[in-house]
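Recall that a protein's primary structure is simply its ordered list of amino acids. Everything else, from secondary elements to tertiary packing, is in principle encoded there. The following example makes that idea concrete.
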Amino acid sequence: MTAPDDGLVRCDWAVGRPGPDFALYRDYHDQEWGRPLHGRVPLFERMSLEAFQSGLSWLIILRKRENFRRAFDGFDIETVARYTDADVARLMADQGIVRNRAKIEATIANARAAADIDDLSELLWSFAPAPRPRPATLAEVPATTTESTAMARELKRRGFRFVGPTTAYALMQATGMVDDHLRACWVFSPGDDAGRARPVEEPGKSGTTGPTVNGNADPEVMHTYPRG
C-alpha cells in the first residue's frame, strides 16, 4: 500500500485513515520503528511503554508518550527506582498517562531491577538474532520467537514484570533488534548501503514500544501491528 501524500510504499499497518493521528503514526513508522536503539535509558523507556501498551492500541501510547516521559522523569532508571507510594499515588492521579496500578508498580519494580544490571542495553541486545530476510506480508511476522522467549525468561529471573515473550518481541521489533518492515517498504534496512536507517540513541530525537500480528492494519484495534 502507499501513503496518499507522498507515494512511498509502507508497511500496511502504517497506512492509516486520514485524520489527526495520520502523520504521528506514519512518522513513527518512517523514523523510529525498527531503527537500532541503544542505551539503557532509551531501552528502559521502550520496555516500559511496551508494558503499558499491553491490552491497548499502540496509538494510545504514542499519543501519550510525552506525558509518560514527564510523569516518569524521562524514564531515568535511578530516579524511577527511588519512587515511593507517594509517586504511585501521583501517577494514578495523572490523566495524561495510562493509570493502571499494576503497570505503574511494574515500571518502578523494573527500574529497580534495571539499576542492578551493569548494562541493560548490552543485556537486551545479547538476544538479538542473526539478520534474516524481511517478511513479504504481515502473515509472516511472528508474535514470539525463541529469542524473545529467552529474553523474557531472563528478565523475569532478574525481577522484571510485564515483559513476557510477546512484549519482548515487540521490544525487539521497535528497537531494531529484528527488522520486520515488509519487503516492499521504502524504509531501508540498517545494513543497507544507503544508510537511511541510522541508529537512534535518545528518545524524542529522531523525529518519536514491535508488533504482535493479528492481520489487522488499523492502529485503533487492540494488539495491532505494531505493538511498539
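The chain has nine helices and no strands. The CA atoms of residues 211 and 226 lie 4 Å apart.
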